[in-house]
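Students often ask why we bother encoding 3D structure as a string. The short answer is that it lets us treat folding as translation between two languages. Here is a chain of 230 residues written in the first language.
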Amino acid sequence: MTVLTVWSDIGCPWAGLALHTVRAAARSRGHELLIDHRAFPLELFNAEPTPRHIVEPEVVVIGAARPELGWRVWAGRDAAYPSTTLPALEAVQAAKDPAIGGLRGSDALDAALRHAFYAESRCVSVVPVILDAAAGCPEVDADALAGALARGSGRAEVFAQWRAARDTGVRGSPHLFGPYGWAAHNPGVRLTWTGDPRTGGLPRLEAFDPGWADAFLDAAETHADTPPTP
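And here it is in the second language, the structure alphabet:
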């Protein structure tokens, strides 16, 4: 079993790509992978919602490169476009409670929320949508999650992780940390922008190499019998 710590925001398409890539690689080779999600809340770092004019071009570029994701441009009402991802990030943290889902449940919920946003144009800012996504995850006790969210579970963890990310050198969303010193920021991606996105610049995916995930899992399997350094 390998535990991969991933700092990210559900509102970051590149994090969705990285997570899809490593989950698919682990699944294809039967590698037991647990993902420990840590919040990198972009809206707290930037003091504003993550702009739609940045997210949507990234969704198009990634969706074209990886059509199996099923992503599309936002097809819901403009007024329903998510203005915050904090409730979704909080739910992923709350789901780590073993009575709700543990790390497996938390990761299943993270994947379901990203799919709801990028593939189904659902507003993951609101709790009913979050709980509906949770209800579709066999690994998650959706009723227990509803009670936890009603008590404010997950919020303190998100804010603590935001502060920790500022203080520990986390470079952005996504930043991945594995055992034995492995780390990567936005792995496999070579990206440029044609200009400032505020004035019409668009992302250009110069290259994407999904092989980073197999390389990470190869290293994890090589060290499987070696206790990690504390």
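Translate back mentally: The mean pLDDT is 95. Keep this in mind for the problem set.
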